[in-house]
Amino acid sequence: MIMMLGKNKLIGMAEQLFVDLTKEGLQPDSRTYTEFIGAYFRVDLVEKAMEMYELMKKSGFLPDKLTMSILIRSRRERACG
C-alpha cells in the first residue's frame, strides 16, 4: 500500500498510513523504509528521504541492494539535473 501511494506521489496519505500502522503496534521493516525513501525522492523531498534512511539504520536495518540503488540513482539524477 505504501509503495502504491508513493508511486502516485500521495506522500501525505502514505505518512498517515505509516503513523496508523505504528499506532496499532506494527513495526516497519527494511522494505517499508526503502519504499518511503524512494517516494520522498520521487517528490523531491530529499531531506525527508535522508531522515528516513537514518531512521532505518537506527531501527537496526541495514540498507539492502534496493535501498542503495535508490539512493545512488536519486543522487545521480540530482547531479545531472
Automatic annotation (TrEMBL):
Which InterPro entries is this protein grouped with?
PPR_rpt, THA8-like, TPR-like_helical_dom_sf
Show me the PPR repeat boundaries: 29-63
Checking Pfam families in the record gives:
PPR, PPR_2
What superkingdom heads the lineage? Eukaryota
> Under which name does UniProt file this protein?
Pentatricopeptide repeat-containing protein
Q: Which UniProt keywords apply?
A: Repeat
PANTHER family, from UniProt?
PENTACOTRIPEPTIDE-REPEAT REGION OF PRORP DOMAIN-CONTAINING PROTEIN, PPR CONTAINING PLANT-LIKE PROTEIN
Molecular function, one GO term:
RNA binding
Gene Ontology annotations of biological process type: chloroplast organization; Group II intron splicing
